[in-house]
């Protein structure tokens, strides 16, 4: 009896020791811990997708196809190397729906949830982790100089809001989509499944389709396309925006600078993108350029929305004019709002770069917007995010060009779509792709969802205060 008790105590001590080590690692390197957890979740989904139960034909899916699908699902991207509507069984479809919900909340927020479940409470470490999702500068440690849209005391409310807002928006989308699908003559249960699937994929900005025909039956339907655009646009704003708007919906004066920049930037890009698409595709019979004017406007608005990370497509994108392809690359690279279901370098990052250029052109020392001054360290962060993104895209494009031998415009399009977790495809992604290409695109999607700053913080050594500063000297710029 005594021996059994000692053995049990030893096991408890070992478990406690392992837990303490994990806890210590998470405390010292929160960004690395979050990446490890997120990568592990992707791997778990890959293993599940590879099982015979996940495939419609009952055969095991090749591991690299399963891994690509898992990463695309959990990173809410939308690229696929198999037909998502026919390849997977009911179990596989369930994995897809669960995966996009898990991945949509973000890397650091997801880690915070797991920490809260393990610890049965939301401690300071979990609060800091979740706060890093709403403001990536926190993952680097030290003082965050600007006022936050989400304070540490609000993190518990934010995590609850994430769940509530996702479920509420998606339920509302289901109610809006269901009647239209029923009008197509689809049986009620199948229509309910399709409405739920479309709802999940639009709000999480994933872009997968539940049917072989995809959006073809609704290609000119204003109601269906408008609801999907609404879901994608709202999903791309970000949870910090919802948090502030729900508390101050009728009082814009109390909106934070982040909320104002996000809404202004997202709306501006949406309108400007649609206008550019409308003009560039005029007369293009391979896309929508020869439809009636009303349809041309609708198609341009839809395309402008989907390039922001939505991923739904009504036309073969390789048939767009090359000028439109370039604009699509730009819009995908920008992406949506911070701490949202969208990818890219984010709308606020672009806004900060423009504000810095305007301040420099006017000879002003500080960046200003909506009556607020923006500290210079935010500009440094914006430049870092942009350069990290551009570097990743350039490296991956070079490698994929060498592997696939496809044209530059198509490969660049595919890489940016993967990095920005957008999911639009030029046709390069397929089951016949070389394994190396699938692995590289999977890595690109993972890096894009993690984010450049979080990745940089994970790769950097632990920050230590410096007790000296080096002599200052100004190099020539421009």
TrEMBL record:
Origin organism lineage: Bacteria, Bacillati, Actinomycetota, Actinomycetes, Micrococcales
One GO MF term: monoatomic cation transmembrane transporter activity
Superkingdom of the source species: Bacteria
Membrane topology: Multi-pass membrane protein
Xref: Pfam families: TrkH
The entry's keywords: Cell membrane, Ion transport, Membrane, Transmembrane, Transmembrane helix, Transport
GO biological process: metal ion transport
Any single GO CC term annotated in Swiss-Prot or TrEMBL for this entry: plasma membrane
Record-given protein name: Potassium uptake protein, integral membrane component, KtrB
Coiled-coil ranges from the UniProt annotation: none
Location within or outside the cell: Cell membrane
UniProt source species: Agrococcus casei LMG 22410
InterPro entries found in the cross-reference section: Cat_transpt
Membrane-crossing residue ranges in chain numbering: 33-56, 94-119, 158-178, 223-245, 257-280, 330-358, 378-401, 440-460
């Amino acid at each position: 009896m005594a021996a059994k008790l000692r053995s049990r105590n030893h096991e408890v001590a070992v478990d406690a020791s392992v837990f303490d080590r994990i806890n210590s690692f998470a405390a010292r390197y929160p960004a690395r811990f979050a990446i490890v957890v997120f990568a592990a979740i992707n791997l778990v989904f890959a293993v599940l997708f590879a099982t015979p139960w996940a495939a419609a034909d009952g055969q095991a899916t090749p591991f690299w196809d399963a891994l690509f699908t898992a990463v695309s699902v959990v990173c809410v991207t939308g690229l696929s190397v198999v037909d998502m509507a026919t390849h997977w069984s009911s179990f596989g479809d369930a994995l897809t729906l669960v995966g996009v919900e898990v991945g949509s909340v973000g890397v650091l927020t997801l880690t915070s949830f797991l920490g809260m479940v393990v610890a049965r409470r939301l401690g300071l470490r979990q609060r800091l982790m979740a706060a890093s999702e709403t403001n990536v500068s926190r993952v680097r440690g030290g003082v965050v100089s600007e006022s936050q849209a989400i304070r540490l005391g609000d993190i518990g409310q934010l995590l609850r809001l994430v769940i509530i807002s996702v479920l509420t928006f998606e339920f509302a989308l289901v109610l809006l989509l269901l009647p239209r699908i029923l009008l197509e003559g689809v049986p009620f249960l199948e229509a309910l499944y399709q409405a739920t699937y479309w709802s999940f994929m639009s709000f999480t900005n994933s872009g997968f389709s539940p049917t072989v025909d995809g959006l073809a039956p609704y290609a000119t339907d204003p109601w269906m396309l408008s609801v999907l655009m609404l879901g994608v646009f709202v999903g791309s704003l970000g949870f910090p925006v919802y948090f502030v708007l729900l508390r101050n919906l009728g009082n814009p004066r109390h909106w934070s600078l982040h909320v104002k920049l996000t809404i202004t930037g997202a709306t501006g890009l949406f309108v400007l993108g649609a206008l550019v698409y409308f003009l560039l595709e005029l007369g293009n019979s391979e896309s929508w350029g020869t439809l009636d004017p009303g349809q041309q406007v609708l198609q341009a608005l839809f395309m402008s929305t989907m390039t922001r990370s939505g991923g739904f497509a009504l036309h073969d994108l390789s048939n767009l004019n090359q000028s439109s392809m370039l604009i699509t690359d730009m819009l995908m690279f920008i992406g949506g709002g911070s701490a949202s279901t969208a990818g890219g370098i984010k709308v606020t990052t672009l806004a900060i770069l423009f504000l810095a250029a305007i301040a420099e052109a006017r000879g002003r020392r500080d960046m200003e917007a909506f009556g607020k001054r923006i500290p210079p360290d935010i500009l440094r962060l914006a430049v870092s995010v942009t350069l990290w993104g551009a570097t990743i895209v350039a490296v991956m494009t070079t490698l994929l060009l060498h592997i696939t031998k496809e044209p530059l415009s198509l490969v660049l399009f595919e890489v940016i779509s993967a990095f920005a977790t957008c999911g639009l495809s030029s046709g390069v992604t397929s089951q016949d792709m070389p394994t190396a290409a699938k692995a590289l695109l999977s890595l690109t999607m993972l890096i894009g969802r993690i984010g450049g700053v979080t990745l940089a913080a994970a790769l950097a050594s632990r920050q230590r205060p410096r007790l000296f500063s080096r002599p200052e000297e100004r190099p020539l710029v421009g």
